[in-house]
Amino acid sequence: MSPCLPIASAMIAVLLASPPPAPPTATWNDCGHRVIAAIAFEQMEPVARQAVVDLLREHPAARDAAFWRGHEGNGDDPDLNLFLNASVFPDDARRPGPFTRYDVGRAHYVNFRIMVGPDGRVREVLPPIQDPGDDDPHGDVLESLAANVALAGDRSAAPDDRALALSWIFHQVGDLHQPLHNVARFAPATPDGDRGGNDIRFGEYTLHGFWDWALGGDASAEAVDALAAALVAEHPRASFANRLAWKEPVEWSREGVRLALRYAYNNLDFTVGEFPEPPIGYEADATNVARSQCALAGYRLADLLSDLVAE
After folding, report:
1. Is 234 a member of any domain?
2. 185 in a structural domain
3. What is the rounded distance in angstroms from the CA atom of residue 284 to the CA atom of residue 184?
């Protein structure tokens, strides 16, 4: 990871002027993660996709008749179901149940620090810092994703460990494409940081939650498949040609910072921590960004998975 994002007002201007990509709660929600997985499933070549399916069958949750095989959101395609269920496993592990031992809270986010002055202007964007009392060996989402990619690609590792790492990869690629999983804003209203918008009330949600639900909430296989097809039609792979060349997750995270500055915190008074309703036009912008980001995440996930299982 580079030592820091661009800092100082001149570099903030560069961030905002560059062409925009059109502990936190779970990014997107089950719907968003499953849509990303469905896009990846359809984008992969059959041989590579089958290799991922074969590995996911070794996942502890795949062997639990009541957990993945009996999931209420399953559709008719058992292979697609594996992709969909793997994508939300890290969030499922946070809920009471048989897999809580796999919960790793910090591995869902990274907090690049948006520093706001008393005048409400963004002064600089600083690199994340680790809490001195935090001895979590998994690290933030960037550090953890790198470890999971290494483990999933290690053919000498135990198959169930590789499958667990693979489910985290599904999820973490999605996490990095939700803008508020990449930042914490330090401002007069939130001097200790807003935890990716979790400490800002935004209508009936937190700001973070508002973005989590930007794609809606129906996570059934039928609804997910339809939404995935719609997003691919709206945002075909060719429309992301330049950005798909960016292979490093830290580059994806920097995209998230730019999106947070341009959209997530747009027209929000930095001196207050509660907003009764979104500003005019905010919801439409958030929806457009979410749809674009989920499509892009699906393409990037397909590429990453294909590289992992390549002979």
Report:
1. yes
2. yes
3. 23
Write down the pLDDT at residue 22.
31
Please name the residues in contact with 250: beta carbons below 8 A apart, sequence gap of 6 or more: 1, 2, 142
- Does the residue 2 lie in any domain? no
Task: Transcribe the chain into DSSP letters.
Answer: --S----HHHHHHHHHHSPPP-----SS-HHHHHHHHHHHHHHS-HHHHHHHHHHHTTSGGGG-TTTTTT-TT--S-HHHHHHHHHHHHHHHTTSSSTTGGG--GGGG---EEEEE-TTS-EEEEE-----TT---TT-SHHHHHHHHHHHHT-TTS-HHHHHHHHHHHHHHHHHHTSGGGSEEEEBTTBTT--TTTTTSEETTEEHHHHHHTTT-S--SHHHHHHHHHHHHHHS-GGGGTTGGG---HHHHHHHHHHHIIIIITTT--TT-SEESSPPTTHHHHHHHHHHHHHHHHHHHHHHHHHHHH--
Is position 3 within any domain? no
The structure tokens listed for 181 are 């999983």
The CATH number that applies at residue 27 is 1.10.575.10
How long is the chain? 311
Q: What is the pLDDT of residues 266-309, one digit of tens each?
A: 999 888 889 999 999 999 999 999 999 999 999 999 999 999 99
Task: Tell me the angle at which helices 78-92 and 46-56 cross, rounded to the nearest 10 degrees.
Answer: 50
Could you tell me the residue range of the domain that residue 99 belongs to?
Answer: 8-309
The number of distinct structural domains making up the chain is: 1
Q: Provide the pLDDT for residue 216.
A: 86
